[in-house]
Specification:
Structural class: alpha+beta
Order of helices and strands: EEHEHHEEEEHHHHH
Distance between the termini: 59 Å
CATH superfamily of the largest domain: CorA soluble domain-like
CATH architecture of the largest domain: 2-Layer Sandwich
Strand order of the largest sheet: 2-1-3-7-6-5-4
CATH class of the largest domain: Alpha Beta
Low-confidence stretches: none
Mean pLDDT: 85
CATH topology of the largest domain: Beta Polymerase, domain 2
Length: 354
Amino acid sequence: MQNLSEKSGTPPGTLVYFGKDTKEKVSITLIQYDEQEYFERDFSDFDECMNHTDNGKVKWINVDGIHDTAIVESIGTRFNIHPLTLEDIVNTMQRAKVEDYDNYIACIMKMVYENPKIKKKLVSEQLVIILLNDNTLISFQEADGGDVFDQIRNRLRQGKGRIRKQKADYLAYTLMDSVVDSYFSVLEMIGDELEDIEDLLLKSPDNGVLRRLHQIKREVIYLRKSVWPMREMVNNIERSETRLFSESTGIYLRDVHDHTIRVIDTIETYRDLLAGMMDIYLSSISNRMNQVMKTLTIITTIFVPLTFIAGVYGMNFKHMPELETKAGYFVVWGIMIAIAAGLLIYFRKNKWLK
């Protein structure tokens, strides 16, 4: 990953890729449809993709891979996308926001989803949605490693629901709604893990549980950083005077806004739970240490008088009357056992021993 300082001093709109190093080939998928027809095809060349477009249909151009800035620049030239927007597309460290221009509106957000095929299950990547005024939508993803749009593609292929009857603004809404819904799936997974960890905290807290708590805490913080600005982004779209989103689609955008608030509320709840679980962990460790110290204290208390007696009769003075007693050894042992037994009975009576 390149350092942001490498871009220092370059003119505004200079396309410099900031993201994960990858050598994968950029993949371009064209999906175009109307109520009667549906077309889907993958391309490796953008010009070839444009040769198959139909102006009378809704066009969804999905670009997997933004590390090739030449392709991003050619798309920007073809659709008259502002250089500053192109600069944001290739910089994967953007916060969620919306940019409203005369001929298009650009929405930048973080897409988070679970990928069971990799060790780190949670995958996060930047998603840029550009809605143009000619019924065209372009989406830019960091890499061809998966997304949260499979259900949307299936609905388009099968012609289910109202999506094939609507224009590109409704498609943009469904994409944003899928991104927000994916947060719910991730939070549900985190909630299940928190329940398991809570049981472990009460039974056998250890360093492994603490490491997992810190990992979940980082994930929750990252989700919070991703969702908070997204709420503002959806709110700005609702309040904008853009003609690219119809009034009927605006109603659905309010639903996305509500879902975003629900996600934020859940995240805040999990933050409080994590803070409480950290307290439980510290309390459990402290209680365990107290039990250990209590046991050691009881053992020490029992052996102090026994050690004193053994010390007295281990001084090896020549004139000690007890040393001449034939039953002295057994008497001392009896006294020591009686003292130990008496202390144990006393501790148990005071409920210091279970």
